[in-house]
């Protein structure tokens, strides 16, 4: 009897030790990075910002000691790559061009979801006859190079039968672009919806909107995790992606559209500007988290762009970089297959 009690006590001690070890394996903090805008404390304008503001990711860890921390980088993609390189982030959401550069340069990231689309705008001086991409021939155009906006401009030029050689590109950050178009030192600028107020002020006129060219015209990017975190905390990784997908589900509900715009306005753009930027867009489609054939084809174009621009020297194995299991598990567990049918490489719905 005494031997039996000793055995039971030993078994209980081992079980308790295993449970304690499992609890200790949970991450104390999970650090997220995103592109930030605005004055004072920056904020985001995409899916991760919704997940942050509405607590979708934090909610997955309710009742646990795990804390989530969100940082919005005004230095955009290069700043996020630097933070990942320095081990300061576990997850990041940003444009394809810089995260491809990061991967090619050795960052141990893994793509776990799409972050959706970015609407790209072209704004021209009002005193010039620039009404289409074709009218940019021979003109000076300001962009920030090595960004998804840069990809958007080059893609638009190709679709219009032009190339970069037909224009003069001036590499400027966002704030400097605004000053340049106001001073008439450039003829046009390419950027996000921060350009829209220029039209109301009479400083520029909007002549191009990427979504008018269809889904393939918009910018794109991904939600990534470091491979180190994914391997150490697979369950936490799944919880994070599930929270991210819940944010996309919430955003797909049209009754939440106005609240979403209010959240994004924390990044500095007026609600009216955000509404104008998303006019005609179904947010559920724009922020589809699926890693389907359409996502793959877009990333292949991003990799090709980075190579053409000599932004990367080594190729990127997209199949090895993408792990679809987390987003697929989240979509299945939430029964959202009908919300986001798979898309072909051209963006056509497959089922």
UniProtKB/TrEMBL annotation:
SUPFAM superfamilies: Periplasmic binding protein-like II. Residues 1-23 form the signal peptide. Residues 81-253 form the SsuA/THI5-like domain. Keywords: Signal. InterPro entries: SsuA/THI5. Gene3D superfamilies: Periplasmic binding protein-like II (3.40.190.10). PANTHER family: ABC TRANSPORTER SUBSTRATE-BINDING PROTEIN, ALIPHATIC SULFONATES-BINDING PROTEIN-RELATED. This is Transporter substrate-binding domain-containing protein.
């Amino acid at each position: 009897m005494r031997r039996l009690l000793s055995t039971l006590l030993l078994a209980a001690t081992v079980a308790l030790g295993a449970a304690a070890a499992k609890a200790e394996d949970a991450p104390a903090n999970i650090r997220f990075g995103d592109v930030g805008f605005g004055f004072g404390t920056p904020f985001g304008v995409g899916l991760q910002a919704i997940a942050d503001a509405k607590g979708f990711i934090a909610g997955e860890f309710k009742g646990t000691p795990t804390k989530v921390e969100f940082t919005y980088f005004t230095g955009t993609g290069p700043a996020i790559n630097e933070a990942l390189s320095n081990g300061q982030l576990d997850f990041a959401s940003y444009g394809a061009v810089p995260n491809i550069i990061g991967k090619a340069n050795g960052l141990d990231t893994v793509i776990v979801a799409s972050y959706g689309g970015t609407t790209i705008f072209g704004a021209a001086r009002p005193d010039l006859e620039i009404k289409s991409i074709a009218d940019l021939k021979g003109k000076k155009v300001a962009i920030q190079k090595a960004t998804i906006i840069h990809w958007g401009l080059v893609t638009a030029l190709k679709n219009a039968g032009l190339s970069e050689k037909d224009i003069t590109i001036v590499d400027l950050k966002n704030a400097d672009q605004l000053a340049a178009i106001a001073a008439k030192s450039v003829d046009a600028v390419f950027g996000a919806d921060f350009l829209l107020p220029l039209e109301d002020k009479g400083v520029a006129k909007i002549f191009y909107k990427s979504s008018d060219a269809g889904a393939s015209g918009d910018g794109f990017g991904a939600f990534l995790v470091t491979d180190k975190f994914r391997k150490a905390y697979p369950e936490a990784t799944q919880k994070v992606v599930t929270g991210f997908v819940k944010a996309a589900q919430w955003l797909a509900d049209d009754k939440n559209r106005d609240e979403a715009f209010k959240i994004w306005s924390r990044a500095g753009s007026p609600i009216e500007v955000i509404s104008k930027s998303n006019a005609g867009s179904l947010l559920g489609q724009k922020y589809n988290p699926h890693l389907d054939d359409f996502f793959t084809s877009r990333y292949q174009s991003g990799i090709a762009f980075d190579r053409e621009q000599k932004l990367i020297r080594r190729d990127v194995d997209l199949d090895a970089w993408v792990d679809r299991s987390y987003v697929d598990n989240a979509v299945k567990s939430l029964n959202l297959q009908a919300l986001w049918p798979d898309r072909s490489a051209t963006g056509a719905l497959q089922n």
